Structures are given as C-alpha cells and as structure tokens.
Amino acid sequence: MVESGRTIYIHGFNTMDFALWHSAITQAAGTDGKALGDQQLTKNGVPIVVESCIAFVTQYGLCQDGVYQRPGDPNGVAQLLEEFTLDARNVKLRYKERQLGDVTDTLKSFLSQAEDALLTKELYPYWVSALDEEDESLRVKKYSTFIESLPKANRATLDALLQHLYRIQLCRHLNRMPGDKLASVFSSCLFQTQGQTPQEIRVVHDLIDNYVTLFNVNEEQVRQMERENSFITRWNDKKDTTFSPAGDLIFEVYLEKRGPENCCLIKVWPSMRSAELAETALSMRNVPYNADDAWTTFEVIENGELERPLHHSEKILEQVLEWSALDYPSSAFLVLKKFAVAERDAEDKVDPKQLVKGEHLKFNDGCSKLLSGHKFQDKYVALRAHKLLLYRDIKTTKAEKVLHLKAAKCYLGLKKKLKPPSSWGFTVYTEKQQWHFCCDERETQVGWVTDIISMKFGSDLRSDPGDGAVHASSKRGAVVDGRKRPQQNSTSGRQLAEGLSMSPTPPLNILAISGNSSTRRSIPAPPTIARFWWGRLERLFGHSVTTPPLDARQTSAPGMIKQNRAALLILTWRSEKYERLLFGLLD
C-alpha cells in the first residue's frame, strides 16, 4: 500500500489469507466515508476524483463554450461517482468514452456531497463577513487567514480547484466563462448551501481572481500555466485546421543542458523542424555550426530522466503540443546537443525499411503484478517490419508481445523508480503502455534507439545535408533582445550575403556582387551541397536561380551572363584533389 509518500508491504500466510486481506483493504480504501481526507488521494493530498475531473476538463473543455454550464446525463454522472467511490485509482477518463458534461457534473456533485463543505460550514460567517471590507487587498488578507485554518485536505483541494478555475477564466474569450460565471456555478458547491446568494458568489469570485496571491504562485508558474493553455488551445485548433503564421509560439530551448545561462527564446512556426530550430538557436548564441558536430534536438520529459532525439521530419510544435497530455507538462523541455552517433557511416548504411535486428535485452513492462515488484526479465527483442517484438528466447517462434512503431515514441533512459540493473536503457512509449529495456553498454542503447526511430520514419535520424528542404530558417524570425530578426528578402548583394551567413553549414567562401559593390565573407557550407545552396537561394529570393554546371570550368562564365542579371554569386571551396567554381545568376 502506498500512502503519503510511504509504502507498506503486507504478506499473507496463504492464498486465502491474502485474498481476504486484499478484499477488505480494497473495500475500506474505496468506501471509508465522504470526508475529503478519507478519499483516495494524490501525492499532493487532493482527492483523485477531483484531480481526474480537473485534468479531463482542462484538456478537453478549456475551449468549450459554456463549460461547467452544460448539464450532463444524470445516469452517467451517478455511475461515474459510484466508480470513483469504489476505486478512484482505477477510473480512467477517456475522451471518447466520457462526455464532458458528465465529468463537470461529477466534480460539482462530489464537492456538494462531501461530508463537509470545502470552505467548511464553520467558517461560513467569516467568509461572508470579509465582504464588509471595501478594499480588495484587505479582503484577500482575510481570505488568506481563513485558508490557512482549513484542514489539510480541504486546503490542498481548494488550491487545485482554484488553480483550475483560474486557468479556465484565462481562456474566457474562448469558453465564455469569466470568473463571475464560474463563481455562480461553484458557490453552492463550495459552501454546500441551498441555492445561491450574491455574497457567496462574490466570495468565490474573489478567490478565483486572487488565486495567484492567495496561494503565493510565482510569475514563472503563471507563465507556465499560460503557456500550457496556449499549447492546449492550439492543439484543439489543430485537430481540424492548419496553423496559420499567427499561430507561432515563443518558447525556451536550451543549449547542451537546462539552465538560465543556456536558454534561448525561439519563435517556432508550425512547419519548423529540428534542423531549423538548431540553426536558429546556434546563430543566436554565436555558436559556429559544423555538420560533423551533428547537432540534434532532444525532447526531454520526466524531469530529465528520459530524452528523445527528434527525427529530422518531425515538426517541433506538434511535439510540444503533446506535452499537455503529460502528468506534469512543466517538466518537459527541448535541448540541443551534439549527437555524433545520429548518422551512420556510409559503409554501414542500411535501408531502414529493410532493417532486421535482434538481441537479448532485459525487459520490464512497468506492471507490478508480481509480488517481487518491478523486475527486469531476460527477453529476446526483435525489430523488423515496423514492429518491436518480444520473445521468451531466441528459439521461440511466436512473439509474446508486439508493438507497432507507428504509434510509439522511443526515449533514451529509464525511470529511476524502476531500479534498472544498469544505467544504460531505453523506454518505448505508446498511449496505453510503456516498455522499458535495459542494455549492457551505451553503444547498444543508442543503437536500438536510433534504429527504432529510423525504422518508424523510414529514414535516418538526421537528414541528408544535400536536402535543402529542411533548411529554411531565414524565412522566419527569432526573438533576440526583444526584437524579431528581420526576414532576408531583398535582392541586394549585401543582404544576400547576410541571409546566407545565417545558414547552418561549415566554411565556404562566398563573393556576392551587386552593381558596383561587392562583399566577401566566410560562411558555413559542407563540400557536398552545391545544389542545396541554389535551392536555398530560390527560397530566399522567391524566384528561380540558374542551376550551376557540375564543373564551371567547362563553361564560359561570360557566356552565362545576361543583361538583366541583378547579381552574380561565386561559390568556391577547396578539397585535397580539386578546386571547383560554381556560377549562379539571379533573375
């Protein structure tokens, strides 16, 4: 049994003895009275029924017009309340299985039927008398005193509920539920009175509006709440419509590790991908980009215990929006790190679609059915045909478990609470389950993660440097010292060189000539992406650029020049065996 951070182990003498104790404890845990403190509680001391309903409404009702004013089905509400009463921990609220109105009415009914009012009947006259103070700040001080005198369970529950209602009224432009309407709905629930009085409504309205002050919520927590609201509302919008440029978000990205000194504020647009994010962040930190460094964007969750290298085709914003489904969205963040193993050597390259891999690993599905608790068991793991298969041993022909990679995410690392036998491992997430694998060494760990990601997306983790489709960050802006970096859309030679100087590549000499002026500067570019640069120039200027010949020395440069050319770019690089000159003229 787990209670308030402690774990109690009970071992029966025989099967019947165990069954009787288990049945009695389960029944007592679910039907021990209607007092808040007697309910099954979360680690924060909030009844699970309250926490579950709040989480469901936050995720699926934040943008709903008139949320908490829509009535639910009485039969559905009664059934849900009974399920929470019997065993709240095993009640799972799924969107397609539960109606929003049923969940909102369940929350209100639970608060109304609790043994004592959330604000306590004993303190009722004090709450109401606080309204005699015309100065709001003086009323808030009195409210704070009353809150401190509440029982622990009441105080924790009030904190969770007011935070939720405060979040709901932040989106009143979408759900049309400002503080006064929410107070009108919840006043009779919190005081457990018949009907509603103006005084009760005004008190609850004050509590919602002043939640931040009453519970000492700092600015960062408020910003995080607003950020999460933005993620959820944009995610709801995205279900039916495509994001527009107005849907851009500004959020934090860390370089190498999480810390204020490593933080960049990046403006992310809906189509932004990993390479573009890396390019923008590195340019803001004045970090030179080298293709051999293999900068990779990682999604980090579970307070840093799990991290996932993003595939080059994944859209950053879509991944961030999914954080709203996490238990603690604020624990997730993005970090840029060098991930040298992200690319295979040329001779080791295998078509991910044809990849077949198998190895003995230690496995844990996170289930605690065994009396011995969480244990890792030896399994033979195979990766093929977009599936991850588990066998009892290498001789077994039928897989015990099969996981389709299409709906899975693979993270480096394991949760510490699982007590893995080694420090190297990876976790595979799906909507309904988690698979944990333990490896003997880091090379094995990274190999499995990169192979799973590559098979899922049908290509290597990082994009081919010659593919210019993933590099377009100079189209959009980043926030630097409160200012947005301007778009590079002029056809002057100077601006052209500046636009290209933000590109994510190793050194290459560029001579940009426009009219009588010329600028020479060193910019990044790998020695294998000539055609990438021309595609990039076309996107930068919005019209076609003459395709360079494979060997410019075989073509007469003057013969390529026409009278209406606005600029001439000469790109040169040197290798051990040859020097190549490429010419391109802008229309």
Question: Radius of gyration in whole Å, from Cα?
Answer: 30 Å
- Helical fraction: 25-40%
Number of helices: 18
Q: Termini distance?
A: 74 Å
User: Order of strands across the widest beta sheet?
Assistant: 11-10-9-8-14-13-12
Unreliable spans: 238-248, 342-347, 465-587
Shape: globular
Mean pLDDT: 75
Count all strands and give the number: 20
Q: Class by helix and strand content?
A: alpha+beta
**Into which percentage range does the β-strand content fall?**
15-25%
- What profile does the largest beta sheet have? 7 strands, antiparallel
Please give a structural write-up.
By secondary structure, the protein is of the alpha+beta class. The chain has helices spanning 15-30, 48-61, 74-87, 100-113, 124-129, 136-148, 152-170, 172-175, 179-191, 198-209, 211-214, 219-238, 274-284, 316-321, 442-457, 493-501, 530-541, 557-560, and strands at 2-3, 6-7, 249-255, 263-268, 295-301, 306-309, 333-338, 357-364, 377-384, 387-391, 401-404, 409-412, 424-429, 434-439, 479-480, 483-484, 507-514, 517-524, 568-574, 579-585. The longest helix is centred in the middle third of the chain and has 20 residues, at 219-238. The chain is globular, with a radius of gyration of 30 Å. Mean pLDDT is 75; it is low at 238-248, 342-347 and 465-587.
